[in-house]
Prior knowledge:
Layout: E1 3-8, E2 14-18, E3 37-40
Antiparallel strand pairs: 1-2, 1-3
Amino acid sequence: MPIYEFECKKCGKKFERLIFPSDDKNPGCPECNHEDVQKIMSSGCKVTLKVPAGYSGGSSCAPSG
Ligand SMILES: [Zn+2]
């Protein structure tokens, strides 16, 4: 699933949206309906992922879903 993360330039709200290659329109902010949102490029990892103490799974880049 092509899920991209966006950040609203107006209110700073971060949200995720499913974007298909054929669907190139701006998703808009769900918080304030502002259309000027910034697509956040990610490397595919949740950098904010918190790993519990003692976790020995190795990778912190597990696919979500
Ligand atoms: Zn907004």
